[in-house]
Amino acid sequence: MTRQLKLFNSLKREKEEFIPIQEGKIGMYVCGPTVYSDVHLGNCRTFVSFDIIYRYLVYAGYKVRYVRNITDVGHLLDDGEDRMSRGARLDQLEPMEVAQRYTVGFHDMMRTFNTKAPSIEPRATGHIIEQIKMVEDILARGYAYVKEGSVYFNTPKFIADGYPYGELSGRVIDELLNESRDNLKNQDEKNHPSDFALWIKASEEHLMRWSSPWSVGFPGWHLECSAMSTKYLGETFDIHGGGNDLKFPHHENEIAQSMGSCSKAPANYWLHTNMLLLNGKKMSKSEGNTISPAELFSGNSKHITKGYSPMTVKFFFLQAHYRSPLDITDEALQAAEKGYKRLIEAIKALDSITLAFSLSPTIKDKEILNIIEESISHMDDDFNVPNSLASVFELISIVNSLKDGHIAATDVSIDCWNNMKSHLTDIVYSVFALNNDLEAESSKSLDGLMKLILELRADVRDRKDWLTADKIRDSLKDAGVQVKDGKDGTTWSLI
Ligand code: AMP
Ligand code: ZN
Of 1, 2, 15, whose CA–CA distance to 323 is shortest? Predict the structure, then answer.
């Protein structure tokens, strides 16, 4: 049995009952990173949001194929240069070396935030044949034209034939027809400013290039997602996601490409995440209003007073609904750190609570079961993580009251207690995927401290001051640290 979900469909601008194409199964495509520089914190927020959405869909009983691509070609800058090629030139590396370096960095960061790998992670450069085929299909149906070896989508014809260009981004046709958002060098080549490139003829210095029926060149940025989502999820699939900055032109053009090639809309539901801000303003490298994940973790930034662990940052992300903007401030992070600690300490203590619970159902059970259900139904309601988290904290308060004796253990049945325990662990560890990095953090600092103490003790032993060496060992034991002197040196462990 799957749970009934409501999703806010950006295409319709309203919440809708979610009906999958195939019962019990979901195909979901999310636009992945452009791997020409380090992943930034805004990207992390979006990918963490979709990770929780993916995890919740699985929790809700669906079999999910989650496809998230790697953009390693075809993302043009304002001056028409490919981002990958520019990255390569600046770093004096091969474009694929740049892509590899930042893909590895992206994966490391996704692991740091404890997100799951998608079911398929296709690369744009691995799907050139599929992209060329899609251009051929669009050309064959009359919605594209060739100019000087490049191929452009014919937007006015698409609109004239009654297709919905502008529906997703809410742009009116006049606006679209006058707007040029395609950062091409050869703007004049296009028949109309609103046309966009499907295939671009490579200039002499362009590093990434492939043969095609039209020229040696490379695909337009929007094409990869259309070609790869079709290949792995079909012409129409269930959910398409990305940050809301991608609505136009990227997602609008994906819709046009799919409809232009086969008359079908690519996705039934479009989900868009909102942006991450820093001190109330959009993050911007040029204005110095930016903070990298590494700076946030280490505290090495003028914007914060100290470092915050990855799970504290993740807990902070969970404070806002994925469709709301979220503002990073030092105060908000400090509050998140307190909340995260309170949550994890309560979850960790669950197993050590052994009370004389009632053996038969109680009135209090009903209240607890209601809160458990609420914490799940908030997720059914367009993945409302902050509301679900509020219900989780209500449960944590009950756990603490039981522990402190403010609620008598006999007021709660053992079945209800077990239910609450496994629910809390499931939702916190498996859906929100907050792992316990508090322990990892404290053992990291203990590592350094123990290294120092054992070095000092080794000096004492070298001086044959056995009394002091034993005193250090015994005091450590009293503090919960076992020290063992073996022939390969001294080791320690927590008792
Ligand atoms: P990019 O690598 O620039 O293509 O972006 C990867 C994903 O991160 C896309 O879904 C973007 O919409 C999203 N994204 C970019 N900037 C931000 C931000 N400041 N806050 C949240 N998501 C963002
Ligand atoms: Zn995309």
Answer: 15
DSSP state of 318: T
> Which token pair is 439?
């322990």
Instruction: Pick from 103, 240, 245 the residue to mutate for probing ligand 1's pocket: most ligand atoms within 8 Å of its CB.
Output: 245
30, 34, 46, 290: residue to mutate for ligand 1 pocket, most atoms within 8 A of CB: 46
**β pairing state of 237-243 and 276-278:** unpaired
Instruction: Read off the pLDDT of residues 391-418 as tens digits, 9 standing for 90 and up.
Output: 999 999 999 999 999 999 999 999 999 9
- What lies within 8 Å, CB to CB, of 357 at 6+ separation is 409, 410, 412, 413, 414, 416, 417
For residue 445, report the distance from its CA to the centre of ligand 2, in Å. 41
Q: What is the DSSP letter of 247?
A: I
CA atoms of 478 and 495, how far apart (whole Å): 10
Taking only the tens place, the pLDDT of each residue in 54-91 is: 999 999 999 999 999 999 986 655 455 666 677 766 66
Read off the tokens for 402: 């039981």
- Using CA atoms, how far apart are residues 261 and 142, in angstroms rounded to an integer? 9
* Distance (Å, whole) CA 114 – CA 109: 9
The number of the ligand 1 atom at minimal distance from the alpha carbon of 283 is 19
Helix (H, G, I), strand (E, B) or coil at 480: coil
Contact 159, 165 (CB under 8 A): yes
Question: Nearest CA to 279 among 326, 340, 323, 336?
Answer: 326
CA distance 105 to 91: 16
